[in-house]
Amino acid sequence: MSVNNTITYEFPLNERIRVFIRLEQLFQQFGHFSAGATVADKRAAISALLDIMSIFRRNDLKSEVLKELDRNTKVLGKMAHNEGIDADKLENILAEAAFISKNLYAVTGKIGMNVMESDLFQSITQRSSIPGGTCSFDLPEYHHWLEQDAAYCRKDLELWSNPFNDIRTAIALVLNLIRHSNSPTEEVAAAGFFQFTPDRNQTFQLLKVSLDKSLPCFAEISGGKHRCTIRFMVPPEDDKRPTQSPDDIPFQLTCCLF
């Protein structure tokens, strides 16, 4: 199964990884739109940054990321002398993890909260809770900012996002290690249904389901550490609800560790 011809669905098995993946997506959106030059790009970048801020306000992410980095470092350290391990690559990963951990430990207080010191950002945050609440007549200062040169706005966006750079790098490292921690197995969902019980002796954090893009269905994953169910659903026609595929669906299943 060629990677370019597949679509992969991920299912986190704990809240920590669920939050990490949400942040990863928001960081990607912010990076994409902050590079744009239109007013719509700038608005989308600010919207992504507001969502990032909201997640950081509700979670002690510094502590969660440091725990995950520390655990991964210990696991990787035990693998150093295993046969077939690329020692140089492993050493680089461990060095990167140590560098990121050092930077995060040096941060005092909640990450990114100093962003709120900007009066403009505070105003945008307050009005964004209202649907369509950031129009020019609501926030003329924001309207003025949006109409500035792209380079000027990008400088502000970089300033506001800089506090999150280390934790963004840390989350990317953790998720990359998890996603590549195990090899996929070839499976078949009989009549679009597949159920299995993960090995209780392993600490799985994420499921990946990959299938060929040409198959006219999508994967709906549910369950937890004790039992997982995968249903392959056919997109609806008109306004009807999706239905489970009647066909046997071949797919790849990866139970990711770390």
Automatic annotation (TrEMBL):
It holds the Pfam family ZapD. Gene3D superfamilies: YacF-like (1.10.3900.10), YacF-like domains (2.60.440.10). Keywords: Cell cycle, Cell division, Cytoplasm, Septation. One of its GO terms (cellular component) is cell division site. Transmembrane segments: none annotated. Belongs to the ZapD family. Cell division factor that enhances FtsZ-ring assembly. Directly interacts with FtsZ and promotes bundling of FtsZ protofilaments, with a reduction in FtsZ GTPase activity. This is Cell division protein ZapD. The lineage of its organism: Bacteria, Pseudomonadati, Pseudomonadota, Gammaproteobacteria, Methylococcales.
